[in-house]
Amino acid sequence: MKKHIFPAIKLTVVMLLFFAVIYPLIVWGIAQFAPNSGKGAVIEQDGRKYYANIGQSFTEDTYFWSRPSAVNYNASGSGGSNKGPSNEVYLAEVQARIDTFLAHNPAIDKSEIPVDLVTASGSGLDPHISVQAAKVQIKRIAKIRKIDESDLHKLIAENTDAPFLGVFGTERINVLQLNLALDKLNGHINTKKQ
Amino acid sequence: MNTEILGIIVMFTLSVLLAIPLGKYIAKVYAGEKTLLDPVFNPVERIFYRISSINIQSDMNWKQHMIALLTINMVWFLIGMLILMTQGSLPLNPDNNPGMSPDLAFNTVISFVVNCNLQHYSGETGLSYLGQFWLMFLQFVSAGTGMAAAVVLFRAFRDKSTSALGNFYDYFVRSCTRILLPVSFIIAIILVFEGTPMTFEGKDTMTTLQGNTVEVSTGPVAAFVPIKHVGTNGGGFFGVNSAHPFENPSYFSNMVEMVGQLIIPMAMIFAFGHFIRRKKLSRMIFSVMTVGFLMLAIPNINMETNGNQAISAMGIDNSLGAMEGKEIRLGAPASGFWSIVTTVISTGSVNAMHDSSMALSGMNELLAMMINSFYGGVGVGLLNFFIFIILAVFISGLMVGRTPEFLGKKVEAREIKIAMIIALLHPLLILVGTALAAALPQYTAASLNNPGFHGLSEMLYEYTSASANNGSGFEGLGDNTVWWNISTGFVLILSRFLPIIGPVAIAGLLAEKKFIPEGDGTLKTDTATFGLMTFAVIIIVAGLSFFPALTLGPIAEFFSMK
What we know:
The complex is a heterodimer.
Chain A: H1 2-31, E1 42-45, E2 48-51, H2 88-104, E3 128-129, H3 131-135, H4 138-145, H5 149-158, E4 160-161, E5 172-174, H6 175-186
Antiparallel strand pairs in A: 1-2, 3-5, 4-5
Chain B: H1 2-31, H2 38-51, H3 62-86, H4 102-113, H5 123-126, H6 129-158, H7 168-194, E1 204-207, E2 213-216, H8 221-230, H9 251-275, H10 279-306, H11 309-312, H12 331-344, H13 359-371, H14 380-400, E3 405-406, E4 409-410, H15 413-439, H16 441-444, H17 452-467, H18 482-512, H19 528-560
Helix pairs in contact in B: 1-9, 1-12, 3-4, 3-6, 3-18, 4-18, 6-7, 6-8, 6-18, 7-8, 7-9, 8-9, 9-10, 10-12, 10-13, 10-19, 12-13, 13-17, 13-19, 14-15, 14-18, 14-19, 15-17, 15-18, 15-19, 17-18, 17-19
Main location (chain A): membrane
Pfam family, one (chain A): KdpC
Keywords (chain A): ATP-binding, Cell membrane, Ion transport, Membrane, Nucleotide-binding, Potassium, Potassium transport, Transmembrane, Transmembrane helix, Transport
């Protein structure tokens, strides 16, 4: 053991330099050519800057809602509910979310609510909802914003992201992008802020 | 839905197809043959050895290998304790995160040194960037340690009769520089362009469209994430690991990270076959592992896709599957698939919360870690499987009434004793740990996030994950307490180093024995029959030891839901 201890320390130091300093600096250098210089992709609209990949809380009736979140979309942290499938308290919470959704969307049938709108994501920062989750909110938004339902159908179709290369994985909608497009179509009518 | 299944098939097939040539490359690297990357890494490694005055030409026997391995691991542990406890006042800390408490630092450092990466902290608040870089370094070198140990096994069965098994530092450094680094580098570049951040700036503030102000954690993520997969480490940069939209921004990045974690464990098996010139044996091992893997993965994909029956019963559209704890961009099928990949190969990174998996999916995740050798972690997966081979050789030998032999070496009492101890260590640590935690509710009850059977599963999962050096969790468990930090810390040390020393000792002992050429009476170990035998031994060892515990946890939960 004594024979190995100094070589081990010296090897650790020189490898530390290689793997934990030089390697990340090279990756950082390459990242300068990536979108937003490797600081995470952003979307800008009306002079405001948003992270494209970080989900936001949308709870107002004038916007397409995002999914429930265990950390309330506070991106300084991240987290899921970690509730087990048989947990009674959890199942009651899901039922309550269904009731709330129906109260805000009286024109729809319960069987149209997709499960992603009443369950929390793993990260608590999920930027997406399913296509059905957007469609089920059309009637509410059309009524409040006084837009044709067909325009909203079109908006959803335009903002649906196809599976990777068209054949792998999921079809989904970035809620932020969809709501930004909605504001473009119909004006920013967020009462809370103005 | 079909595009989601197609995505899974492509991920798996691509991993196998890439692992075959990679295996050949790995065999060449360890044999010291010429490879494409020599001009880059020959000079780099020469600098390493000159500065640290190491002579890689001097051969070691298996004991010297283990002494060198344990010494350098101890050095990492000590430096790590120092860094994590003082990171609050060290540079590269834009978010002003504090130093770790001694018990948390103990657990975290051990966990990263042993390639487990249980994380009883959240990266956003628990680590400075300097701390993150140190842990990233440990993810490289702990993976390299496991691979270097596996190469001792390679060497032991290549030469007819020898005690000279190469040089630990040589294998270890080569694993890091020529195998782990190039693969990680390619993945890092892909991630950077998919939207994973690589910045040294601290938290950013953003006003949302609805007018709320939130902070957004960021950091040098893109350099960190690849090695967590390539080295089957699994320690995430952020608290939720690869469920975080910065760590895993798209379905494509998910595919890349999936392939990244599967290829080296697979390639090591092929490398073994090339290295000892017995490709048929490596095909047998690969087949047994693949059958076991698919038997766990396919049901999980199915159960997660079908979703929670209790939610279906509420009358909503449940066709997306079990979405609690899952991300829309990844979807339930790919998350179900990942939950088994990450548990069979000891990565332990997650892209969905395992605590919210369906009851029997949770059981399969546990079983995957309990068996811990259907592929297994880089290097160590093969070592774990080797133990089962030795046991299968012994039992087959008894059945046909011959002295058990493996690759021309007699397997005798001493080797069998070591194999038995190692095979029993894993159930011992898991079951005793869980039993203690359940018997001492004053230390553990407050940390549970779910009641009843699922609560027991949370504790069982934590010890299983620690003992399998996996690192995933039923993360509802509030595990940053002295009890969990210290108890899992000790499980981690024992379950890492004994299962490395055991198989390496057996290999070393066998290597010194006289070589007996194969004859008519030799039990052939590269056949389907022997594969079946090994599979049966694995199922019996895991089945008999763990089913009582599984019955009390996930199985009871499943039946309580009907």
